[in-house]
Predict the structure.
Amino acid sequence: MENKRKVSVKIFGSDYVMIGEKSEEYIQELASKVDSIMKEISKSNFRYNPTMIAILTSLNLADVLYKSQEEFFEISEKYELAQAEMLRPQEELDNLKLELDAVKAQ
């Protein structure tokens, strides 16, 4: 927490000072993404006020986050299944070696 830095950003025409541990470039990139989404939403309906645009932007970003989390969990499950599949031949080989050792011992 000791590496906090202040970064000035402009989002939807307003200036903000962000405080964070990430690099200035990262914070600027995030602000740029939010600004871009807000501008896109404002173009779709000129009657939206800034609060409505901010809420719709938040919902859009939450949707992206939620879908990313779902995809991550699906990929994690597939990875675990693939990992288990990869272990199966090794277990079979170990069992065959034990059988072979038992046959040799007889």
Q: What stands out?
A: The beta strands are 5-11, 14-20. The longest strand covers residues 5-11. The chain is about 75% helix and 15% strand. The mean pLDDT is 94.
